[in-house]
Amino acid sequence: MGIFEACLRGAPVSGEVDTRVLARSTTGFSGADIAEICQAASKNAVREAIAEAEAKGGEGAESKNSKMEIGKRHFNEAMSRARKSVSEKDLEVYEHFRKKQSIGKREGMEGDAEGGFKFDDDDVEEEGGMGGGRGEVEGEVEGEAEAGVENDSDEDDADDDLYK
After folding, report:
1. Residues contacting residue 95 through CB under 8 Å, at least 6 positions apart
2. Do residues 16 and 71 make contact, with C-beta atoms less than 8 angstroms apart?
3. CB 45 within 8 A of CB 70
4. Residues 5-54: tens digit of each pLDDT
């Protein structure tokens, strides 16, 4: 239901459209599949509004666009052409993975509802947070110099220096 609401945010959806019904009808569809359904329904509504405006000879086209809504019939047409890109086997694999992950969280983590992640006090340095950002790089450069790697020519690798 959340994917439908996100895809249709700001769109002129008719009050007759129930996203809960759409969500129940798309069990096993990926987020991209649902986004495609929403786009198709929107395009169906636009095509219909344009056809109606042309039938009136272009009169009132602006007022018709402001009243245009994506209705049940637009979703019915979009759903008639919709297809799942996720197979039943893929769903089974995902469900197995999800169960395995939830078991691992219960057995291996310390009681945090967010998954139990926690930095050890030894992992964080006092001033630099995560090592100050340049310490490892400088160490590697010094290590290269000790190994006999020449790195003082800016002419050869001027285009390679993305961060200077």
Report:
1. none
2. yes
3. yes
4. 999 999 999 999 999 999 999 988 999 999 999 999 999 999 999 998 89
Position 30 scores a pLDDT of 92
Q: Which residues contact 60 (CB under 8 A, 6 or more apart)?
A: 53
pLDDT in tens, 121-157: 775 555 555 554 444 444 444 444 444 555 555 555 5
Q: What is the dihedral of CA 83, 86, 92, 93, to 10 degrees?
A: 170
Q: Which residues pair with 129 in a beta bridge?
A: 125
pLDDT score recorded for residue 138 = 45
Burial class (CB in 10 A: 0-12, 13-18, 19+), 38: buried
CA dist 121 and 13 (Å) reads 51
Helix spans in the chain (H): 2-8, 19-25, 31-55, 61-67, 72-81, 88-108, 135-146
pTM of the model: 0.56
Map out the domains of the chain with their CATH numbers: 2-86 (1.10.8.60), 91-148 (no CATH)
In this structure, what token pair is assigned to residue 81? 């052409």
pLDDT tens per residue across span 107-120: 655 545 555 667 77
